[in-house]
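Repro:
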Amino acid sequence: MIKQLRIKDYILIDELTANFDNGLNVITGETGAGKSILINAIDIAFAPRVSKEVIKHDKEKAVVELVIENTKHDLTSLFEENGIDYLGSEIVLTKEITPNGVRARVNGTLVNQEFIKQLKNYFLDIHSQHQTYAFMQPKYHINLLDNYAKESYGKRLEEYKEKFKEYRLLQSQLENLKTASDMTENQLEFLKFQIDEIDSANIQNPTEDEDLNNELEVLENAEKLKELTGSAYWAINGDDGSIMEALSKIKQNVSKASSMDKNLEETETDLIDAIERLKDAASALRDYSQNLDNDTERLNEIQERLFLLDKLKRKYGGTLEAVMETFENLSKELSAIEFSTQNIDELEAKITQMQKELEHSADEISECRKNYSKVLSVLIEEKLEKLELPKARFNISVEPKELSPDGADEVEFLISTNVSEDLKPLAKVASGGEISRVMLAIKSIFAQSDDINTVIFDEIDTGISGKASQSVADEIAELSKYHQIILITHQPIIASRADKHFYVRKSQSDETKVEVYVLTGENRVKALAELAGGEINEQSIEFAKSLINI
């Protein structure tokens, strides 16, 4: 469960720490007070993308931190695989949002979004207005049905999905081969010409042109280089007034001086080393000057070679590396074409066989879905009756479709809330209050079997009142026996069932701030009274007290 939420410089909050309990945690407050900020902060801690707009005005970064208590899952291997310290029951997830990006840490170690996604799957289920929209879409319904029946055919479905990926890959390969085989004779001849043109150039390496340009520059400047290096040699080692002659006299003087002062011995040694290095340099300059020839034949050879290489670079990518890469790609393309007919026949046979296997597997999964859809439909109807929809009829339609990544079924939730109306898609029939109750019914059915620690509801009471509110409150209270519930509500009956009651208030002074309080005693009675009557008076106070039996 979520033990603690810490927020710093987030939207309208300077700094806030909220400690949540097991059971039902309720958040109330005036409209526009900022109740959703807490839930949004929890959601952002796990979100793949976060807008920099959440950073409080004039602040460098926003920080959201969750302390999670883990009592249901052994995550030792997961943490070890990702190089994260596993601290047992406590997990600290920290997210820093800056104008330049987002960083996430778990137990102090930087982590990627894939790891955070895995954590969320273990610990958190958020139901907001956005999720309500998704809940009404048929593509979401098949996932709900499969999740309910995962113990029955979950493994078979995963095997199907893996085989379908392979099937799609083979289809893509076949399409590419057929495209290649449709190439005209002229196109094929041009392809061969390109390959031969590059191959005949016999490119030595990706830097051959650079090496040749360096050599060309030397040959073009051979006379000048010979003059400069020869002059340098004679300056060092000539007969009269040379550097070596001067250094020889210096060495003699220093040698005499060091015999009189031992402190000069190191200097003498350095001087001797310098003279030897200079001799080596002079020899190198002499050899370079003597061996340097103005090789006109080699000069012409290099120029012709560079002309050829430049031509290839212009045609095939701009660099020799690109030219060589083009050669490899063109060669592969030609090989594929040459063997395309044989490959096409083999692939078509393989695809046909795999399609039969997928169809068989999809049929088995479909039968399972139809069986479990009946069971789940009955359970949802029973829950809806408890939630003050006694006339509701609920059915999960499972209709055939073409093979797809999740099978060969079109799954859709159908509902009728009135006896006289036919079953229709959930999105076309149900009101906001009815959608909330259908969703709650499903959550309740799943509650006792799934391992999710925390379920968050953002205004699940939308569109309900009266007796329905009492029924929803009872169901949420029952759900909180199996999960930690964090819930925003405007209904006093629901709020009265809270194990912990948070109140959110927006203050206006020098700047707008959001403040959060934990309500107990008289303050909680007043908050419930305000929810019940819109204002606090004797009648609303008495009603609030009756809700919490005081």
